[in-house]
Amino acid sequence: MPRRTRSTPSRKQQHVALTLKKDVGFRLKTTGLEQWEFVHNALPEIHLAEVDLSTSFLGKRISAPLMISCMTGGYKDALTINRQLAETCEHLNIAMGVGSQRQAIENAQYHKTFSVVREGAPTIPIVGNIGAAEVAAMTSADAARKLIDLINADAFTVHLNPLQEFLQPEGNTNFRGVLRGIELLVRQLSVPVIVKEIGAGLSADVCKRLLDVGVRHIDVAGAGGTSWAGVETLRRTEKDVAIKFWDWGIPTAVALRQAAALRSTYAFTLIASGGIGSGFEAAKCIALGADIAASARPMIKQLQAAGKAGLRRLIAQWIEEIRGIMFLTGSTTIADLQKAPLVRYT
Fold it and tell me: pTM of the full predicted structure?
């Protein structure tokens, strides 16, 4: 049952503050991406000018296989953050996802913290977001449609966060009916449904169950980046149990490879997130099977530290890293990069 002791806006604000100011990364576990290296191609037989990073995502052409992922919204200060993120994504023509829109259901005064995203980014792919517990309680897709319309979303994400809800003082731990709710949305919504974890990873079994009910966009959101168990540990007065779960989860590289293996049976879009901290890591994810890579915390930290100009520089650096890797692996397209050879060092 829900254990509500703090309002949703103040909790969201506290979450963002902790991720920006405290060390809430995994302590003992990594993404696993550091174990993989590209095979250098000394005879790429391509011109650097021919390298094309553009790709299709949610029916739109974006300039690079990158997305600023779901992080915030639903409290006063989120309006400025989301506007700046949206304007940056629009300028660079990459995708963006918003944080949980639950507060937009509960209180119309926070609608602007989300609608500002489409105002600032009229052409790029924008992805809405709601939590699993809210989806489990849905008997129709009406509420989801309102959230989609609020930002004119190109897709709608359902985030699975049982670990966070377990540790969160206000957590809703009734996850019975989540898969049924996801299937309902898949059948009734006019935009694709994306299902993601928030940093503990999706197993092959969970991915298969999602694919079997019609989900065709999956974000593995693996372990190795932000630990939401760590965030909730810092929020709790009693920390003894929560701290034991700080490093719980499936590393991003492991979750990604397991999900990619399902493509022998299912056709679906695969998004990699969870500790992606550079263009190098984004490129590795694509070579391991992802269609695009997504990141949240590094982007918001850069925005807070250096403003929109600094965020543009960071993303431009990531793009240049991907371009260099494509050149040095003989890849002229993202499809080529997905086939670039990797070797594993353990």
Answer: 0.95
- 145, amino acid identity: R
The pLDDT, as a whole number, for residue 103 is 86
Q: Which domain holds residue 177?
A: 8-344
Q: What is the pLDDT of residue 1?
A: 37
Token pair of 138, please?
A: 């849905």
3-state secondary structure of 74: coil
What is the spatial distance between Cα 100 and Cα 93, in angstroms, rounded to a whole number?
Answer: 23
In a domain, 103, yes or no: yes
Q: With beta carbons less than 8 A apart as the criterion, state whether 232 and 284 touch.
A: no
Q: Is residue 250 part of a domain?
A: yes
272 exposed, middle or buried (CB, 10 Å; 0-12, 13-18, 19+)? buried
The CATH number that applies at residue 98 is: 3.20.20.70
How far lies 304's CA from each of 21, 143, 211, 234, 309, in Å?
Answer: 11, 32, 37, 21, 11
Phi then psi for residue 126, to 5 deg, are -120, 140
User: Is residue 3, in this structure, part of any structural domain at all?
Assistant: no
Residues in the chain where the model's pLDDT stays below 70: 1-9, 73-74
pLDDT (0 to 100) of residue 6: 52
